[in-house]
Amino acid sequence: MNLLQLPENQAAAMQTVRRVLRLISKLFSGLGLLLLVVAVAIGVWRYHLLSDCVKTDATILSLSDGYPTVQFEADGETLEHTFSTVKSNTFRVGGTVEVAYQPEHPLQTVTFAGVRGYLVPILLGIVGLSFFVIGGGVPRMLARMFELPADKPVPWDEDAL
Fold first, then answer.
1. What is the pLDDT of residue 127?
2. Is 121 buried (19+), middle (13-18) or exposed (0-12) by CB count in 10 A?
3. pTM of whole model > 0.85?
4. How far apart are CA 122 and CA 115, in angstroms?
5. In whole angstroms, what is the distance from residue 72 CA to residue 106 CA?
6. How deeply is 155 buried, as exposed, middle or buried, from its count of CB atoms within 10 A (0-12, 13-18, 19+)?
């Protein structure tokens, strides 16, 4: 028995399943593409931000619930900055991290330099690419499975083999 020989109510159910799978595919692909675009935009913005900044090593003075307070020198002045958006268990008091700052406003634009500064776009890109691949592949493969031609048996129909 193949899909074209199914009773009318089962054929309608299969058609509904195909539509749902196509919708899921489009949603995953769309969300994945959106996350990829956001990841690239954030990455480009970070690159331009860091290209205008001065990079230097900073010493971690203290940790408050994982948020580091760092000390660094800018134009011969010793400055301190507490990060409120970056939290990690890998920070150690007395350790060093690379920071970047804009020379005009050294305390207003302190950010992490190096790979650590690109973690958000990298992670968004990985998730976005995963969603895009899943949305483009798995649901479409399942949808194709429900669209078998009349001359081929349904894979799960043992009587047709």
1. 95
2. buried
3. no
4. 9
5. 10
6. exposed
Those residues with Cβ within 8 angstroms of residue 87's Cβ, 6 or more apart along the chain or in another chain:
65, 66, 67
Q: Give tens-digit pLDDT for 27-36.
A: 888 899 999 9
The whole-chain average pLDDT of the chain stands at 78
Q: What is the DSSP string of 98-158?
A: EEEEBTTBTTTS-EE-SGGGGHHHHHHHHHHHHHHHHHHHHHHHHHHHT---TTS--TT-G
SS3 94: coil
Q: Which helix (H) or strand (E) holds 45?
A: helix 8-51
Amino acid letter, 143: A
